[in-house]
Design brief:
Layout: E1 3-6, H1 10-31, H2 36-59, H3 73-81, H4 93-114, H5 132-166, H6 172-178, E2 180-183, H7 194-217
Antiparallel strand pairs: 1-2
Bound molecules: protoporphyrin IX containing FE (2 copies).
One protoporphyrin IX containing FE is lined by residues 12, 15-16, 19-20, 23-24, 53, 64, 91, 95, 99, 102-103, 154, 157-158, 161, 172-173, 176.
Length: 222
């Protein structure tokens, strides 16, 4: 019998769409408008979002918790052999790995940005604290290797989402909008009541405050 499962709680969905907007805004502000101050500001917002997602991975709804991501080699192999037999509502093993790598690539891009210099009057807040060798390494990673890796991973993500939607006819995008999936087998639902949402507001506020204090300690103009 089909059942309606709450898979993505509201905080996870807001995190996802805010990340999409902040990442796009950060890239557009540097590549289209060449506005480094806004490029960095959107980067700082991404820092708050990432640290929130890290904490939410321990205390968030059932399917947002990292312990419920299926990352073992055995599960990945089983999924690759028979994807149709996968009956869990959350990320499948390939999706779980892809999310971890995506978050890691965004984190690396962010850290490298903090140590980058554009040779035209703008430099990240870490640059006065590291050697010029590290600044040029960070800038090289940020503007070359890291940029292309992240772009490739986002492209892969969109291709995977399109494949599930158009070929496999699984409404994953609808689930990332409404939070719900219809499942043929019993699955736990993610808690998403008022108190969980208020906890997320509190945690995001704390993550933003910590990001702000760290930037101020580094004498950053925000
Ligand atoms: C800059 C672009 C994007 C980034 C960086 C991104 C990042 C992510 C991340 C980190 C997750 C994991 C969510 C979590 O567990 O916290 C995720 C999941 C997801 N994203 Fe995106 N996303 C992007 C664009 C999009 C777009 C444009 C769509 C839809 C049109 C989309 C649809 C989805 C869906 C459906 C999932 C859930 C996949 C599943 O059920 O396993 N994403 N994305
Ligand atoms: C995840 C967040 C970020 C993303 C996705 C990102 C992405 C990018 C991209 C695509 C470029 C253009 C590279 C090119 O010229 O082709 C760039 C340049 C740059 N970014 Fe970021 N960035 C992020 C965060 C930051 C942060 C937080 C800072 C510093 C506060 C920063 C500092 C710089 C600098 C200095 C450049 C110019 C380097 C140059 O022109 O030589 N970025 N970034």
């Amino acid at each position: 019998m089909n059942s309606l499962v709450k898979v993505w709680d509201l905080p996870t969905r807001l995190f996802h769409w805010a990340l999409v907007l902040a990442l796009s805004a950060s890239v557009i502000s540097v590549l289209v408008f060449e506005h480094m101050v806004w490029h960095a500001r959107f980067g700082y917002l991404i820092a708050s979002l990432l640290s929130f997602r890290l904490v939410w991975g321990f205390v968030g709804g059932y399917w947002s918790r990292f312990v419920n991501f299926k990352l073992s080699f055995k599960d990945s192999l089983a999924y690759l052999r028979q994807p149709a037999h996968w009956v869990r509502a959350g990320h499948n093993p390939l999706g779980s790995w892809s999310v971890i790598v995506m978050l890691l690539l965004i984190f690396l891009q962010l850290i490298a940005g903090l140590g980058s210099d554009d040779d035209a009057g703008f430099s990240g807040p870490l640059t006065p604290h590291i050697s010029s060798t590290w600044v040029s390494l960070a800038t090289r990673y940020h503007t070359d290797v890291g940029k292309w890796l992240l772009l490739f991973w986002v492209f892969l993500h969109l291709a995977a989402v399109a494949h599930h939607a158009l070929i496999k006819k699984k409404p994953l995008v609808k689930a990332m909008l409404s939070g719900y999936r219809v499942m043929a087998h019993a699955n736990p639902s993610s808690a998403d009541a008022g108190k969980h949402r208020w906890l997320a507001v509190l945690l995001f506020s704390i993550c933003s405050a910590i990001t702000y204090v760290c930037l101020k300690l580094l004498d950053t103009q925000i």
